[in-house]
Amino acid sequence: MTLLKTMTAQHIYITEPSRSRTFRAGWVIKDPWTVLENAGVVVAGGHIKKIVAPAPKDASVKDLGPGVLMAPLVNAHLHLELSALKNLLPLGKGFAPWVAALLRERDAAGTPTLTAAAQKAAASLHDMGVGLVGEISTLGITREMLHTSGLTGVWFKEFLGDEQAYPGHEEQDPYIKKQFPLSFSAAGHAPHTTAPQLLTALKKRTRAAGLVFSLHVAESDVEKNFIAGIRGGWTDFLASRGIDTTAWPVGNKTPVSYLHDLGVLDNATLGVHLLHVTDRDLDILAKTGCSICLCPRSNQNLHGRLPDIASLLARNLSPALGTDSLASCDSLGIFDEMAFVRQFYPQIALPDLLAMATINGARALGLGQHGGTLDTGRSAQLLYLDITARTPADVMEKVTAYGI
Ligand SMILES: [Zn+2]
């Protein structure tokens, strides 16, 4: 059965789980560096078999029109379960007041409200051209809805504080499971919120399962100062929540060097944000092969600061894009995130930007063989944009500006 779902007047999300057929469009973006005119994508058995250019003309070909056919976008970092908090939290007034308000409003909303808003947000992702996600869940309420949403990706159970109940009982582990289209993995929250022994234990579990481990890294001044050893308000805040940090090996470190010392950075770790990084941190990230996800709109709203994307690209760190949650960002759309990056980083080459929105995210989630491009063997999920373009460069121009 083909799901050929018209999402808006402008684009169509296509899932072809089994039938053999060819989808033709005026332009096909095979990958960010390969744009083909008048091409067809041949799918069979739920996978892409090949791309043919020029596209054949026969009755078996589904002609989508003169627009652009491409891989669905990847939102490598979001929190669906915070969707109910949209427009409820203070932005631009510092990180600590935002965190305090988040905890208060999340409790006040209650599980039914959080669940309903998360379901609505999950259902809207295909509408926005997003097909592959890295969902972070602290409360655990989005696991089943993601499973039934038709989305591909990784659902991460996020751990904070110094809870000891998990992990350890591997045969009874309720969270870790590597499978397609949706894996279940674990995430730490951040170096300044999750105890070091818990971070290393979680990393050990995800590593053994061949899954990506994720955490926020180097996002705020609060985090940077705490890891540097400046005790104060944050230590007191954690203590008020019953978390004793006196034995944590912080002091004279950056968040990246701290995590490196703990041994949790490798090519199956996805660090999110990286707003506060030194040259040495960049060397560590490059050497360990750690993946990176950036959420520039959220950073701008929460911290009034943007990541140094040029330095990351210069070291071939290939960042992915995410949105974080609706509690700090206007939408979960990656077309919107691309448009924002174009505006604030006009020097980034457009294929590099589209890679951030597609293949970099798929790879960062350990799903580079399943999505992010229309290469042979990838999942038969396609996105058609009803836009008119004259040249390959014009295609890139219009696709990366589609969210404007
Ligand atoms: Zn986040």
In short:
By secondary structure, this protein is of the alpha/beta class. It has helices at 95-124, 143-148, 196-208, 221-228, 233-240, 255-262, 279-288, 296-303, 309-314, 334-344, 350-357, 359-364, 392-400; strands spanning 3-6, 11-15, 21-31, 34-44, 47-52, 61-70, 73-78, 130-137, 152-159, 182-188, 213-217, 269-273, 291-294, 320-321, 381-385.
Description:
It is a single chain. Helix 10 packs antiparallel against helix 11 and helix 11 packs across helix 13. A hairpin with a 2-residue loop joins strand 3 and strand 4. The two termini are 34 Å apart. With 404 residues, the protein is α/β, with parallel strands linked by helices. The protein is built from 13 helices and 15 strands. It has a seven-stranded mixed β-sheet with strand order 1-2-15-6-3-4-5. The protein has a four-stranded parallel β-sheet with strand order 7-8-9-10. Strands 11-12-13-14 form a four-stranded parallel β-sheet. The N terminus is likely disordered. It folds into two domains: 97 residues, Urease, subunit C, domain 1 (Roll); 292 residues, Metal-dependent hydrolases (TIM Barrel), CATH 3.20.20.140. Zinc ion (ZN) binds next to loops.
